[in-house]
Amino acid sequence: MPGSENKDKALNATLPPQALHDDSQARLDRLADISQRLLERCRARGASQAEVSCSEENGLSVNVRMGEVETVESTRDRGIAVTVYFGQRKGSASTADLQDESLDATVEQACAIARHTEDDAAAGLAERELMATDLREFDGWHPWRIDADRAIDLAMACEAAGRDFDPRVENSDGASLGSGNSLSVYANSHGFIGRERSSNHSIGCALIAGRGEGMQRDGWYSYALAEEDLETPAAIGRKAAERTVSRLSPRQIATGDYPILFAAEVARSLIGHLIGAVSGGALYRKASFLVDSAGTKLFPDWMTIEERPFLPRGLRSSAFDAEGVATRELPLVQGGVLQRYVLGSYSARKLGLASTANAGGVHNLHVGANAGDLASLLRGMGRGLLVTELMGQGVNTVTGDYSRGAAGFWVENGELAYPVDGITIAGQLRDMFSAIEAVGTDIDPRSHLRTGSILVGRMMVAGDSGVGEAAPG
Q1: Per-residue pLDDT tens digits for 128-173
Q2: Cβ distance 39 to 52 under 8 Å?
Q3: DSSP letter at 219?
Q4: Could you read off the pLDDT of 264-278 as tens digits, one per residue?
Q5: Where is the Metalloprotease TldD/E C-terminal domain (predicted)?
Q6: Superfamily of domain 24-245
Q7: Alpha carbon 211 to chain centroid, angstroms
């Protein structure tokens, strides 16, 4: 619509300079001081080791629907967690109260719990020599000085752009805007103290097109650490409308084996299943289909997955993990071979291995591409199913069995032919990994699992047994 981009820029204008005072460093100093005082109190009570996590968070979220404000919420939270070790006995306690009496009580409670627990040979801080010393920031602190009125305007503009895009969009599940900031300090009795500050912002919209049993719902959202990296509200609304309208009049396809192209926004779930299966907790409990799989080939020869914790504005960039261990760039999969597991110090000890600096999770996994954008992947597939939505929780990490409800588009001659829903796709994760034929360059930037669309050569699709072989529209 003419002038919509200018309107979006005006709506995204920042507040006056006098509103931009940033006291985050002073607040981090306060959290650091609290953590040191708590560690001293732990030592005074006889703890052989101790660790403290302190955090402050604040945020604003608004929701609108059909041009009306539904909710406006401002949040401000803080938390302090204390963990003590008496030898290999562990106790933890937490509080949100910064008064001295409450802090003393929290330490005392953690110590009391530790004294009544059994020894655990894997318990304790991560090794001192693994502590991070290069404590850089990675451009993740971008507070958005936005008030409730401006947030409502942006959400309204997003929904209006979607509702005005096509007359078949007759209803809405609403639009939302969220913005939050977080400050955290982790310290332990090795002398390590790490500070982090991060921000996150999002705008999203969900729309409904059609009527009665023919209604379809879809949406779109943008997520980033800095406000200027968000898509404009109008662009989000229009994309939500395009996606919703494109799903009208879906068809069934016949049950059978077909190539499956997972669009980037759902392809990352496949990488998530891999992470779950190679994470220490699942491995030492023998609750993973990938137990004892390090060093084995799981993917095609060209496949690489690398952890990149130092990406500027990376969604999970950090110089240290949740235990203070220095992060580092490491391959997870190289040449199709699983190179390592995903371990913190506890799970590493349980497995007789070393920490991989993944206490608290992975940091920006990047899946290497061997193909082009989505359009080129569709042309390469030729005929099959593009999956744009997955439903249900039918994934068994113990066995690797995979079965999920899905919706998307039938592809014929390398082009979208018609929408499809009411189907189930099924397979075995180990087989699916080895059957990957292509990974695209169309990375979805809204996740720390950075992958483009993924083409799996064949999967079972349970469709309609009364429908003949899938055919072009």
Answers
A1: 999 999 999 999 999 999 999 999 999 999 999 999 999 999 999 9
A2: yes
A3: E
A4: 999 999 999 999 999
A5: 255-463
A6: PmbA/TldD superfamily (3.30.2290.10)
A7: 34
